[in-house]
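Much of what follows relies on a compact textual record of a protein's fold. A record is reproduced here so that you can trace the correspondence yourselves:
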Amino acid sequence: MTTLIKYLVATILVLGSAFLPAGQAGAKAQSYSATVLDAKTGEPIPFATIQLSKNRGTVTNGEGIFSIDMEDVAKLRDSVFISSMGYEEVSIYPKKATDTIIRLAEKLNELEIVFLTDNPLEPNEIVERIKENLASNYPNNYTQKKLFFRQSLYNKMNRADVDFKKSTIEELNEALIDSIVMQIPKESSYYSESIGTLSGNYNKQKLFVDKSAKLYDKSKDVSFDGFGKRLEKIFKENVKPDSYLKIKSGWFGTKVELDEVETKEAPDGDDGGVQVRVGEDPTTQDITSGVKDDINELYEQLFFQEDTKLDFLQKSNRYEFTQTGITSIGENLVYILDFEPKGGKDFSGTMYVNTDDFAIVRLDFQNVKKLYGIKLLGIGYRDILYKGTSLFAKDESSGYSLKYMELERGIEFTLDRPLTVIEKNKNVKGRRKQNELDLNLDFKTTAVTKSEFVVFDSKDLSESDYGIAKESTGVEATYLSAYDPAFWEGYTIMEPNATIQAFKVVE
């Protein structure tokens, strides 16, 4: 990415934006793949549990599809059990199975009616029991988890207007600026997938990444890069070799050397500005810390964490709870408890609560209004989407641990600011100012990030074993221009949706 466009992007980040420039179900090679459907309606069943052994398994994706790598199939000593809330459990033996469609029948249990009659708890009483048992149901123990993590980013440029004011460089005219703006992609998507081992608890983790892939259209990144390249090329051809650029946006400004990727402080006597260090392209760096940070962000938003956005338990008096029924998962009965905000609170959703120990075994939630937002000095930022699903299951320590989490976060970013690029030279007689370009930028974009976290295998870990656990280093994601199921041969992953499977860069 060129110096000028890197500066523009970095300046936006410094000023507080969160804008991120662009970045059919079938059998995976060497795997057993199937779709889980409702036997009555034929609809896919998302997030159904696929149990390989006591602490090993996966879940179906949002389209009801799952796959098991044949190496894992070969290790099976028993059947695979497939279950979902409110359905009869079924078993299959993948070594001999030929069906790619698995139908689950609705579970009819007369005990549910008896239970409701004998246990007439009010919704608020259930909520209080949930809160009383949080510490015992969700212990902050050390564990070692075999995991798969997928992140999908969707960006849309809603508005990209550049108002041309003035230019003393003939080549940098209004027509050229307009043509450069037209190159900015209106939509883009970026997908990343990683598999590895996560050691730690909810507060601190170590991650060893075994393999990682990234899937996106490089040409859409080039469109942004080309915007900077063309501007920089014209400046280089029309400024003196020892000149520098002073880039200002309202009160903010900085110096950019044409042949460097790091801004420096302005010369003595010049007005100071914001110093911006522009790093390397993150897609070529070790991805371990980035993936770990993303997983840690998911952990921080679990409903029992102190600083979570999901405050329906912490501020339960600000929510209305309604028991809409009772269902079962496996041999366990669960309350179905809906919640809605009172007044100005932010979320609605559904809790599925174990009737014995009052653990939330599944949570679905979504914001009911736009969340946090700020607008200052022509820069606007707002959280517009926050929805997700989390599943928990009993682990070795008799508590519950996270088995699957999906979180979608949508943001809206606006920028309406002047931009002035001035060529200055301290080695010429007279005034330092040589050339000037004045623009006004008016951008609006939305970005949606969907994170999916799947635990395939989990076991308890001592604190001393956590201390010696190693993190991966030097792991770079492999670039794919089209989805390739063979890339994950030898691994069991969460099946991608149809959009990802159909993704292909058009040459």
Summary: The chain has ten helices and 21 strands. The chain has a mean pLDDT of 80. The longest helix spans residues 218-238.
